[in-house]
Amino acid sequence: MHKIPHSYVDYFIIFSLPFLFAVLKARIQQLQSDVIVDVQHEKVQFVKASKSGIGASSGNSPKNVFGERTEVPKAGQTISKGGGQTGKGEGKDASASKSRWMEKLSQEKKTKTKKLKQKLGLEDKPVKSSKGKLMLPGTSHKTISTKAGIKTASTVKKSKTLKNQEHTMAASKHEHTMAAAPVAAANVPIRKAKGKGKASKEPAPELSEARNRAEEMERKAEAKAQELAEVEELERKLNQWAVSARPELVQDNSEARVYGDVQRSVRCYLEACVFCGDIDRAHRFLLGHHRMVSRRNLLNIGLYNIMMRVWAKKVSAAQYFISMACRAGLKPNLGSYCAALECMGRNPDCSPHVINRVLRQMEEDGLPVDELFSHCVFRQDERDMVLRAIHTSVYAPPPPPPTLILCSVCVFQRADAKYPKMAFSLEELQERFSRQLSIEQASTITIHSVEAMKPVTSHMAKMVNKLATYTYSLRLVWHKALVGALREGKIILASSTQKAVRLSLYPYLCLLDEKDYVDIMIQSLSNLPPSGESLHILAKELGNRVHNMFCIRMKGHNQMVDKLSHIYNEYAELLAKDSKEFDVLPRERWWKLEAEHSSGPSLLGDETHWPHMVVVELGTYLVDLMVKHMKVNSDILNSAYDRKLIPVLYHMYTFRSNKQVGFIKPHPILTQMQQDAMDTTLTFDSYVMPMLCPPVPWTSAKFGAYLLTPTKMMRAVEGANQHEILLEKCQDADLHAVLDSLNQLGNAAWRINQPLLDIIISIFNDKGSEKLDVPPPNSEAPKIPRYNQQDSATFTSAEKAHLKREVVNAKKKCSEMHSLRMDALYKLSIANHMRDEVFWFPHNMDFRGRTYPCPPYFNHLGSDVTRAVLVFAEGKPLGPGGLEWLKIHLVNLTGLKKRSSLAGRLEYANSIMDDILDSADNPLIGKKWWQNADEPWQTLACCMEIANAVRSPDPTHFISHFPVHQDGSCNGLQHYAALGRDVIGATSVNLIPCEVPQDVYSGVAQQVEEFRVRDAEKGLKIAQVLEGFISRKVVKQTVMTVVYGVTRYGGRLQIEKRLKEIDDFPKEYVWDASHYLVHQVFSSLKEMFTGTREIQDWLTESARLISKSGSTVEWVTPLGLPIIQPYHRSRTQMVRVNVTYSRYLNTVKQKNAFPPNFIHSLDSTHMMLTALYCYSAGLTFVSVHDCFWTHAITVDTMNKVCREQFVALHSQPILQELSNFLLKKYWFWYPFPDLCIDTILSRGSFGQFLQPHGLLFALTCIVNCGTLYRQVCLSKSCPIN
Fold this sequence. Notes:
Blueprint: H1 6-31, E1 36-41, E2 46-48, H2 88-96, H3 100-120, E3 127-128, E4 134-135, E5 140-146, E6 151-153, H4 162-178, E7 193-195, E8 198-199, H5 210-223, H6 225-242, H7 247-250, H8 260-275, H9 279-291, H10 293-296, H11 301-312, H12 318-327, H13 334-346, H14 352-364, H15 371-375, H16 382-392, H17 426-442, E9 444-448, H18 458-494, H19 514-526, E10 533-534, H20 535-557, H21 560-571, H22 586-596, H23 612-629, E11 631-633, E12 645-647, E13 649-656, E14 659-666, H24 668-677, E15 681-685, E16 696-700, E17 703-705, H25 722-729, H26 736-746, E18 749-752, H27 754-765, H28 789-792, H29 797-833, E19 839-840, E20 843-845, E21 851-853, H30 864-868, E22 870-872, E23 876-877, H31 879-894, H32 902-911, H33 913-921, H34 936-950, E24 959-960, E25 964-967, H35 971-980, H36 983-988, H37 1000-1017, H38 1021-1025, H39 1032-1042, H40 1048-1060, H41 1070-1088, H42 1090-1108, E26 1114-1116, E27 1122-1124, E28 1128-1135, E29 1138-1145, H43 1147-1176, E30 1182-1184, E31 1187-1190, H44 1195-1210, H45 1214-1226, H46 1237-1241, H47 1252-1273
Parallel strand pairs: 1-5
Antiparallel strand pairs: 1-6, 2-5, 3-4, 7-8, 9-15, 10-14, 11-12, 13-14, 16-17, 18-19, 18-22, 20-21, 23-24, 25-31, 26-27, 28-29, 30-31
Enzyme class: transferase
GO molecular function: DNA-directed RNA polymerase activity; mitochondrial promoter sequence-specific DNA binding
Protein name: DNA-directed RNA polymerase
């Protein structure tokens, strides 16, 4: 870290004083937070505080028609701002929530108050109540007489709405006013209480001068009003910063994020109850939470809106839920008014004046009527009912939905854009849409397995048929047993006597037909590996399948499918070759069509993603049914065994990473049956398959990709939802470029390279080939050693340990072979199913902005095998230079000639044309030259394409579907070199023109070899052993990943793996050699890329300081995509069906991951810019992160666009903008937001904050001072919070 200049220390001292002053003020407020002050006109009385809490209800108030107690305050009582009754439960919760730190503060307050009284010459004497008990002043309800009017301040718990926050601030201000005399009430006339709310008529004679003192104290307090106004303004701004900028979130609870998971669970429960028709259960559940003050805090206005929408369709009780929400301290939002208007629209007798009153109330709340139709989600005929209500009123009808105004500021020139058409007619695209819709509505799809193509003997066929018949009958038995068990379980759950506020699985078990649940369970059984699966993983898979099917059924129930069909059929005109030309992007076209078809339900559903806990709990329940009720006869495979029913699944425990986890393992009989039966079909979820029609364009962060299957635009780890909050805050225009790039990637059409696929399947069904990355069958797995107990008794302890290791290694090898075999089986079976189809891959992204295809198994980001069988569906002629690019691409795939120029590679390709043609004609019986390449299957595919081209009448007119790749030269180092303007580093990664391409991996290997020779001459043993073994392949992975945060430990493991692959290298020196080489690789990179290491250190140290302050690291990409690192320490505990998570900030990961994630985000930004410009130029473009694909004829154009966008990206002051963003973002903890950071940065030496050491110093100041401030000001009991 750079040394901090002396001038910065001065600024640190200057800034420390306001911090400490603010902390002192907040501390004083805390010490006075339990004083309840009521200012009444010429009345002074002490009222005994209730045991159940100040202002508690007596519990005898009358009930309304719904069974809820009305709030009738008695004399001397106060009612909380939340509007709810305070009872024993509240007092209990309040006392339980006090921390030891707050108890210490309370004790400290009493001590300081006593000293202050002594200094002022006052005594605070205990006062006896009517029952003779002593009442301490700190627990009394004080009422002070004034003539200015009635003012009340109370220290109820912090309200959950902005409105209540303002009341709290007002109360806090008055407490400050009285802070000058915290014991003034002890000197006013006191009347002894004779009953509830009554006072005696005799004043205390020893306090006759108290009124004069109180008035004097009041005048002094009023003199400080100006100072306290500043504190109130600070509180107001802090509260404004604490809530979201969106109007919906401003109206909601300020603590919504604290209770986010609980609220989501409650919301999902209510939605499930409503969907399955159990309205009474949902009503009781919400009412139970509302009546309990401790649970009412967990509710938000959206939960009340769910029930309001239900009762709106019954033309009753909608207004009751609005009143409930208001009593809970929640302000109605657009959804609330929408439900109320829907209810009025369904009621033909509703008075127009009532509707007018609602519309006027909306305007008073700052909610324009037209936003109902742009922000609310409608189901079925809800939109029409709202419109009917508005038209019924005398209120002027809202204007029609705004027409689409295309953004004039785009990332590329719209005037020169030529958006490509697809090689399909409008009728063909509409037919494909219908097929895809049917597949997604079915939720699953069954395809033929490629193993069915394996030849079998007559005896094998007889056995297979026998087992297949038995398996089919067995599944019928399982189906009947599971249906019965599911029904019985639902009856038990439905009749459970548990409290109404407890979450139950019952509504989640009623969302689908019983047959659907059973099909999901049996499908998961067929996909279970022989070695078993973690209970947590299996339960999550089952729960997610239920959730996906539920979302699809809900969209059908909401009548959204018909509207989607109409819009998509018109949207297809944009892509069809026989329709007119359009000058808009897919996103813009979809927006316009959706605006034109505004009637009816909304396409964007408002269903909530189930919390991870709900998914796992539901899945665990289904697994439990499978374990208990799926059984098989024990003599099915061997008639010598006694016949009895045994479970096909076992729940056991195993250890993983020193943790005991639940494990579900199939019985060996089931595994043997599945292998012998040779099931010829595979069943997948519909989203696993590529789409048969172009994806729905992403128009927002919540809508796009599949037709019905729910898909997130941004992937994230389980339990992380910070990125969703950031995306919600984003303006739509900020995400346009990101959405358009995802749409462009998803619109690339693909087809299967059938000749190559047939060759791969033939090898797969033979014995596979490890050299060609085709996994062998399970029959080729090593046999697990088995030893008799008697034989092992004669073994020594060393021999027993050796035998155990052999067994463990054999089991591990068998498990790995099975996993690889099934992965290849899935990929090849999907490819074989799609062999005659044209298909598409919808895309989404991870939290860094890196894009991925949504189908998980088969896509172009897969292995060499899957990439080789994929070609573009659209063909283009090679043109004058296309054949040369095919030959250069072939040499690149082989891994040869890395240091040669493009002309040298082309010359080499021409010199081996005989081998190329022989590989294409005789791939399995010829010279097999292609099998020695780095990417053998892609090399063979390219050989076939070149052979077809050169044998065509005119190669320039040959229609090629083959994708040509252009890969980056260690892309991470390229970005670091460009950021640091590192000339030497830039030369090594081809950012500067050279006569021949530079290979950074070969350069590092060469420098490491020089270090090795030097050390060998000095007599270092390991350096001598490594002679002849240091190659490009050994160091490549470590060099590639060092810029992405790999540590020396991780680098050593990478090099160790490469050394083990070398047969001639002595295995006893692997550890020493890998340890030596990783040190030399890091030293070499440090010398070659000096600027890289400095930038990396700056990013790491910045992230360390940010995470130390308790914040997650955030930034925004140059395309406007907000990024937040989701790294937290998760502690998972699972007991049967209960899963609990406790998440804490993982400061180590936040620090170490920031540099690589920041570079990944820049890499993704460059790819997106290239994709958008290529699309506007009419190119077919796809990417595998930093490897770009296009047709051979358009390679030159793509290269030009790629270089231009890289220069344009790094022409921006990226690091300076990042520094500014971090300062503004984390300057939030500075206690005086009036002091704008922009002003600070513009003053003299503070401009040096833009330099790395300046930013680090600023962050250090924020950490050191801001942390103390946050500990006080962000405490739940702090008055200003």
